[in-house]
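Next up, a specimen:

>
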Amino acid sequence: MLSVENVNLHYGAAQALRNVSITAEMGKITCVLGRNGVGKSSLLRAISGQHPISAGAIGFNGAALAGMAPYRRAKEGIGYVPQGREIFPLLTVKENLETGYAPLKRGDRSIPEDVFNLFPVLRSMLGRRGGDLSGGQQQQLAIGRALVTRPRILVLDEPTEGIQPSIIKDIGRAIRYLRDSTGMAILLVEQYLDFCRELADHVYIMDRGAVVHEGAPETLDTSEARRHLTV
């Protein structure tokens, strides 16, 4: 289980996270919702080690993560899919996937067949440069690259952003398959309410850097939840 306890995070004098506490259980999809600028991506940067926290604790399966370098967290089993995908545009699809080998032992350095079963288009584009792919194909590549690291938790930052509806459905099916077939934990940051409602086992809503609501997906239809999600 991933545990975030009373975490604060600052960018200089600006405070982005205020005593944030969430958990993401193995075999479940946990969704964090909120408007732009409320701290969702900062939370994932704290979990993945992209930005240090100011206070609080982050743990995964008994290991304390605070102060641990991002590559060490990858070795612990945290697979991170950043907002904007951040694939390497001049590397081929195959080379992009192979960058996921970094935290693996030499004998484990292969591309799992699940990557191509979930996203068949990647197999047909192995020799194509990442920058030549559509936005939806790049998102599939970014998720595939994270899966190459053999994660125990998959952390995704707005995977539906700028993606056509058909690929959003493919990504939703892939996330559901990974939860059900591997038992990994999935932590998903989103603004797309219907996507979270369909997938999530548990939801959190953030506003102004703090968690303001949590519960089952059905609670997203309450007036309190809607108040924090409407612009």
